[in-house]
Amino acid sequence: MRSDVQTFCKVAIIIGILAIDVTWIALTDFRFEGQSVLKVIAASAFCGLVAYTYRTWRPMRAFELVCTETAVLLAFTAAAAPLSYLVTSLARPLIDAQLIGFDAALGFDWSAYVGYFSERPLLGMICSVIYLTTLAQVALAVIVLGLMGKTERTQQFVSAVMLGALVCIVVSGIWPSAGALATTRPPDSFWGSHHPVVDLAYKQTFFDLRSGAERFISLDKMKGMIAFPSYHGTLSALLILAFFRVGHWFWPVLVLNALILMATPVEGGHHLVDVIGGIAVAGGSWYFAGLFYRPRISRSRQLIEIPA
Hints:
Mean pLDDT: 90
Shape: globular
Number of strands: 2
Distance between the termini: 40 Å
Largest sheet: 2 strands, parallel
Strand content: under 5%
Low-confidence stretches: 297-308
Number of helices: 14
Radius of gyration: 21 Å
């Protein structure tokens, strides 16, 4: 029953975000491609149907859990991604100057750091490949943890992913950042033969949303608009936390995501403090999500037996 309540709460959050999206789009000049949501509806409905099957007709808790949490993640992503575009359009003052100052205080030089990878094409290619594994890792985490029977850990992970995304979206709307790449704008020759995942052409959507030149939202063409705090950093840190003390999985996940965190300034065009902020968001999200999944202690177990 407790899992049902928590799933209901997640669905309620998704509905709330959708209501904000629909209202915001209806009251502004934004346009949304309705057809782009059909794939998400179909995939979420399929996962929900399978989950219902494993709950009622062929009870298998692990499969039900995996399908339910996957459906939740799919629906949440479809709701939260447009919201990130909408808050970007608020066009509040950028805080990149302050973030560069924080990086400098930490002794971090973005141009020198990224330049090191650009001069080594093989190293740059490795960074690109591992950086692109993050979303696949999130999906794999739900499957692996769910099938291992770690019900509360799986649910806590999905809840933390959702909470972390909402925090990053809200913070990026209030204190927007273009990122180190878009602020520094190095010449094409700076990159050599390396082509990062996020380049200046990719970042142009961010500026178009702020200026009003871009007002079309399609789930088929979504880009990451959040620079500070880095949501990529949040997801990598959450993956590490999710697999902490989970058999032989922890060390490979730790190493891979530590490398992703190191590659984030290169492939995502982030300030170092963006990554640090993303890790902080992950820690807070994991903690607060965990409050809902702590086992309840019955009153009888709380009583202290007093010796005669």
